[in-house]
Design brief:
alpha+beta, Uridine Diphospho-n-acetylenolpyruvylglucosamine Reductase, domain 2, Uridine Diphospho-n-acetylenolpyruvylglucosamine Reductase, domain 3, Uridine Diphospho-n-acetylenolpyruvylglucosamine Reductase, domain 1, 3 domains, seven-stranded antiparallel beta sheet, four-stranded mixed beta sheet, 9 helices, 19 strands, globular
């Protein structure tokens, strides 16, 4: 991998002029877990055209690169990485409501006329029609979308209260909680391929499943249209508050983490020909399996499986490192496999 200065020279002055450029960045500061080494080069495209130009330049020069939104589901390696890191922040957090005068394919000019979340000018269309279309860019905060839509009496994102991720990542992994998910409210998404091709995919084409979608590795969800139902604002805010309260009571939110470590198994493997999980229907959740193999509260270095929620790894000391995370995840996967015959699939993305 070329060094940062050589990469910038390959990208060219026109492409670089449309990015915010930072060298030798503490990558851990870009994630919610706050572990890992340094990023040699971080680029923040100022708008959609800048991202397209950057993607094309990477492709033309055969350069590997990585994309990051809110960093809430990522663990960086302790050694850091030399590949350029493209960060969707700033302008990429905007959203607006679709109206008859704002055609739904206006996303082709992504960034033009979009309104920051929480802005007084982000107001509902005058029409009383329901549902209401909300177009948001991939870097928009799920928590902010949930909060601001609830204030306006729009229902559908209450489940996202307290989820620290971005919309783009949420669409890619079909994030969800409290019996709902992003797939329930998503109408379509605009996905940018590494070669610069922009694809428009509807819900069916996205092939949503538990914590997955048809968005391919390396593709970027640059925007999505959500359909939200009109209800009384007080009612929507109350439901959102219930979701947030449940999250605060059951998850260790006061510690740095990357959320759930493993996906919940979807199938219950046979064990001696008998049903061995009786606490509810279906397969056992990941936290139950991790708890049963004795890892609740288990610590390695500055990282621990949470006492409150065993499927969360939390940073408990400043010396925490990515190696601690890897060790505990590997240990959990091994013990669960040996004890129950279940293969735990990581939900956390390990770079």
């Amino acid at each position: 991998m070329p060094g940062p200065e050589e990469i910038l020279a390959l990208l060219g002055p026109d492409v670089c002029a449309r990015q915010r450029i930072r060298l030798d960045v503490e990558a851990r500061k870009l994630t919610s877990f706050a572990v890992g080494g340094r990023a040699a080069l971080v680029l923040e495209p100022l708008d959609f055209a800048a991202l397209c130009a950057l993607s094309a330049a990477f492709q033309a020069n055969d350069l590997a690169w990585r994309i990051l939104g809110s960093g809430s589901n990522v663990v960086f390696p302790d050694a850091g990485f030399a590949e350029p890191l493209v960060l969707l922040s700033g302008e990429w957090s905007k959203a607006f409501f679709l109206t008859e005068s704002a055609t739904q394919d206006c996303v082709a000019a992504l960034g033009a006329g979009l309104t920051p979340l929480g802005s007084p000018s982000l107001s509902l269309p005058a029409s009383s029609a329901s549902p209401v279309g909300l177009l948001a860019l991939g870097g928009a905060s799920l928590m902010a979308l949930s909060r601001e839509s609830a204030k306006l009496g729009l229902s559908g994102l209450e489940f996202a209260a307290g989820i620290p991720g971005s919309l783009g990542g949420g669409v890619k992994m079909n994030c969800g909680a409290h019996g709902s998910s992003i797939s329930v409210v998503l109408k379509k998404a605009w996905v940018l391929a590494r070669g610069g091709e922009l694809r428009l995919l509807d819900g069916a084409q996205l092939c949503f499943a538990y914590r997955s979608s048809a968005v391919k590795p390396g593709e970027i969800v640059v925007a999505a249209e959500l359909l939200l139902e009109r209800r009384e604002a007080q009612e929507v805010q109350a439901e959102r508050a219930r979701c947030l309260d449940r999250r605060q009571k059951t998850q260790p939110l006061k510690y740095p983490s990357a959320g759930s470590v493993f996906r919940n198994p979807q199938d219950l493997p046979p064990r001696g020909g008998e049903q061995w999980f009786s606490e509810g229907s279906g397969a056992p959740p990941a936290w139950w399996l991790i708890d049963r193999v004795g890892l609740r509260g288990e610590t390695r270095g500055g990282v621990s499986f949470s006492e409150l929620h065993p499927n969360w790894l939390i940073k408990t000391a400043p010396q925490a490192c990515a190696a601690d995370v890897h060790f505990l995840m590997d240990e959990a996967a091994r013990r669960v496999r040996e004890s129950f015959g279940v293969e735990l699939i990581p939900e956390i993305i390990l770079w």
